[in-house]
Design goal:
Structural class: mainly alpha
Largest sheet: 5 strands, mixed
Distance between the termini: 70 Å
Shape: globular
Strand order of the largest sheet: 4-3-5-7-6
Number of strands: 7
Number of domains: 2
Radius of gyration: 25 Å
């Protein structure tokens, strides 16, 4: 009875932590501009929403190939789970006016995935180590500035991070409990992960390696005896996972093999984009092998990484502490997700979001490290004060990530840790300070106040749908016309990236000024600047 009560209590705490994180994301979303990729997903989600409405009204017509292709050929390079959730949230908002604006309605499912990841970090940490470890794992995962930034977005990076963690959690529970229900849950959640993003392809690799390393002797004996004794969850992943994947992606219901092959080819032969690292813009292989590890050190709070290393050492010195080799599984969750960047041919254009799937496992190790440090410190004080030690140490550990994360918002992609001198130090080192054109959201006040009526604005790296969403939300004047050329514009935006510096010079020529009207960024580091054409001041409205 006590175990059942403790289990319910832990689930309740996990739900509370996840809901609190979603609440924090909702409370801080209003001043965050829309990222370039979000614009593409807004468009896709609206197409999906139209199909969902057709499905409700005329199911047979909606299931015809022409209707499916018409809706789901949009953004077909990515599967649909997250975008369908974006669509459902937007439809709910249109009907019941749930959110303050349309953009937030699209973003809300991504925030829920972030809350799911936070809650799972706590729950898995509790079940496998201690409450202190679980609580700190949840906190430290939530308080990574780049994770916090991505947690707001209508994109796939936080959703696949949450799904990766969920599948791994179900897999471990299937080993610990020996339950076919957890094995089936592993297969189902793997199918959902496949339908979220291609990072899911690495899950079977991690689990097979885990099975071989944790059950190697038993597997050899069963193989010699003519039997193959693999975890039931792996069989469920192989059978149920693909069925869920295909069943939930209407685009591949026709020409299934060809369309799946096209999807795989898109990501295995992805276009190369530009990213600055240590003062050099990389746009084709070979890419620096140090990139993933270097950027992790530069962007994840240092106390988190130190505790992660402590936790890893504690884990190495504590073999067989928990059933199912959970520490080995966490280690594989880190290593497998970083492994692609051991190759100099793996594109690096997306920065830290590409290996964000490793961060929950880093946080879980950090939770173990925190638990160990807390216990060692408790041994050094009187018995009367021992109960206070976890709270005091927790406040000390959590304060720096909390300050770093909230202070960096809404400039999350420009956030760097004191290890590299913060954002100014990172700029000096030549680390990328922005991409995706999302910082337009930080200058809407300038555009609203200073651009003349019906003025044209060169939007640079902001996607058209992202610009329009600012207007649909009422954050940007409706009469402003966003354009992608400099001919005769009244204003121009410049989102700084090293390879885009030539655009700045083009703006000087087109607007006949070398002086930006406004420059904004984090900690004095320029990230976006606004140029206004001289002599085109806004018409003054009469006083009322």
């Amino acid at each position: 009875m006590e175990d059942a009560s403790a289990h319910r209590s832990d689930v309740g705490i996990a739900l509370l932590l996840g809901a609190s994180y979603v609440g924090l994301l909702l409370a801080t979303v209003s001043d965050l501009g829309y990222a370039r990729d979000e614009g593409f997903y807004f468009h896709a989600a609206e197409r999906y929403a139209a199909w969902l409405e057709l499905l409700a009204q005329a199911p047979s017509e909606a299931l015809e190939r022409s209707a499916l292709d018409g809706a789901f050929s949009t953004n077909r390079e990515h599967p649909v789970l997250a975008k369908i959730l974006f669509a459902l949230s937007w439809l709910a908002h249109r009907r019941w006016n749930i959110f303050p604006d349309e953009g937030t309605s699209f973003r809300f499912p991504g925030m829920c995935f972030a809350g799911l990841a936070v809650g799972l970090c706590y729950l898995w940490g509790v079940r496998s180590w201690s409450r202190a470890a679980g609580a700190m794992a949840a906190l430290l995962f939530a308080l990574v500035p780049t994770t916090f930034y991505h947690g707001h977005l209508a994109c796939f990076d936080v959703p696949i991070t949450a799904m990766w963690l969920l599948v791994a959690f179900c897999y471990h529970q299937s080993l610990v409990r020996g339950s076919w229900r957890w094995a089936l849950a592993t297969g189902v959640t793997f199918g959902l992960a496949l339908n979220t993003k291609h990072n899911s392809w690495f899950l079977p690799i991690a689990f097979v390696i885990h099975a071989l390393l944790s059950r190697g002797a038993g597997l050899r004996r069963s193989f010699v005896g003519g039997r193959i004794s693999l975890p039931l969850a792996l069989a469920a992943m192989a059978i149920v996972g693909p069925l869920v994947f295909v069943g939930l992606w209407p685009y591949v219901w026709y020409d299934t093999a060809a369309r799946l092959a096209s999807y795989v080819q898109f990501h295995t032969h992805h276009d190369y984009y530009n990213i600055e690292y240590l003062g050099v813009t990389h746009w084709k292989p070979p890419f620096p092998r140090s990139y993933a590890w270097g950027m992790t050190a530069a962007t994840v709070p240092t106390v988190t990484l130190v505790l992660t290393m402590v936790g890893a050492v504690v884990g190495l010195r504590t073999p067989g502490t928990t059933p199912g080799s959970v520490l080995l599984l966490w280690a594989l969750g880190v290593l497998v997700n970083y492994a692609p960047w051991l190759s100099p041919n793996t594109p690096i254009f997306g920065g830290t979001k590409h290996w964000m799937t490793a961060y929950p496992f880093l946080a879980l190790f950090a939770g173990v490290g925190f638990d160990w440090v807390g216990k060692k410190l408790a041994e050094a004080v009187s018995e009367a004060r021992q109960k206070m030690v976890p709270w005091v140490v927790g406040a000390m550990v959590g304060s720096a990530p909390l300050v770093e994360t909230l202070r960096a918002h809404p400039w999350g992609l420009a956030a760097y840790t004191p290890l590299v001198g913060g954002t100014p130090g990172a700029a000096t080192l030549g680390l990328n300070r922005s991409f995706w054109g999302y910082t337009t959201g930080s200058v809407v006040d300038v555009l609203n106040e200073r651009v003349p009526p019906n003025g044209t604005v060169f939007v640079h790296d902001t996607a058209w749908e992202s610009w329009r969403m600012l207007q649909r939300d009422g954050r940007l004047r409706q009469d402003l016309r966003g354009v992608f050329h400099l001919d005769g514009v009244d204003a121009a935006l410049y989102h700084h990236e090293q390879h885009m510096s030539g655009v700045d010079y083009q703006i000087w020529v087109a607007l006949e000024t070398t002086t930006p009207t406004v420059i904004r960024g984090l900690d004095g580091v320029p990230t976006i600047w606004v140029y206004l054409r001289p002599g085109r001041a806004p018409r003054q409205e009469p006083c009322r």
